[in-house]
Amino acid sequence: MAKAFVLMETAVGRSKEVVAALNKIPGVTSVDAVTGPYDIIAIIQGETLNDIGDTVTGKIHPIPGISRTVTCLAI
Description:
Alpha-Beta Plaits
């Protein structure tokens, strides 16, 4: 099982709707709004690293309001 932390910057005023959209994605196990340089941190899991990549690029990146992501793979 692969696991990753996805750190996201959002457009001003869009965090709540981004959190709601993230919570609907299969494989997203946790979503938290945070303070600091990022606005949201999500934990995602998949069977393989390719599953993680597909989730990030195919399901998370297209969410309106996300301006930047950084994905950190758990080892």
